[in-house]
UniProtKB/TrEMBL annotation:
Superkingdom assignment: Bacteria
Pfam (any one): XdhC_CoxI
Lineage of producing organism: Bacteria, Pseudomonadati, Pseudomonadota, Gammaproteobacteria, Cellvibrionales
InterPro entries: MoCofactor_Util/Proc, XdhC_CoxI, XdhC_Rossmann_dom
Domain XdhC- CoxI: from-to ranges: 15-69
Organism: Microbulbifer celer
Residues annotated as domain XdhC Rossmann: 172-315
Protein name: XdhC family protein
Amino acid sequence: MQYLDLTVVEQAWAWLNRDETVWLCTVLSTFGSSPREPGAMLVARADGQHVGSLSGGCVEEDFLERLSAGAFSQPVQCVRYGGQEGLGGSRVTLPCGGTLDVLIERMAPGSDSLLHLETLLATLRGEQALTRRVDLDSGEKTFVEDGGVGPRVVLSEACRVASIRVGPAVRLIIAGLSTVSIACAEFARQLGYEVIVCDPREEALNSVHLEGLSVEPVLPSIYIASPGACHPATAIVALTHDPRIDDLAMMEAVNTPAFYIGVMGSRQSSLARAERLRRTGGLSESEIARINMPIGLALGSKTPAEIALAVMADILRVQRGKTRDAL
């Protein structure tokens, strides 16, 4: 899941909690080029205020215009954008020539809607992976347990039940501030990750302007070890070249369910770090094997931006289940 989707559900819950009706939109399927993948979400109020994204803008404009005109009064409705024949009254032709199917759910204030969104919020925050099933005829919504593997959205054979897989928003914990850390944070934000930077050094935090991410002014190892900091959709990277920060972060990272753990350094310094982690940290060979060091893809990177690109590309590779020799 993208961090933007968590923001969407948080806003939907806040509006519902203020007794306002909301319309929750979910991309069900895409054909051809599309800027947002199945499962992407947007929430809107009747006055046009909205959070989230479904496309590059044209789909949102059409939806909000029709919403303000009183459309979408049913509990559940599907709309197809693009293609030769739009479903649900769509008048939009996508510039890319593709098509986009969108599920639109009208959620009125009440305990049932709030409970549904609270369950969805808990899932996105990392408590448990679930599948959200929406009956496209009756509007009935249920949750079932999910293993977290497979396509984001599955439609039943008759296309009358949408199964939408939901899980934690991908989180990137950056241990320590550096020029590479800042570049990584920018890349990660563009990828839709939730970004958390940990550094106890006040002078380091005061020297940069960090927008759109969380800052924890503590030792990264302390934050990583704190309850709820890491879930299976978490990546942890240490990028300072300072063993006091990087080594301690790695010693705690291997005790988490993070899907990616990495630390910056040359091959020679990585060998020295591995020996320190064995001797001082008491890490086993299997724990050391979890750590990507040197971190990132071997792109011949030199500048901070190039190193950050190599790091984020490697994280995305692991997230997508690709081996290095398959690239």
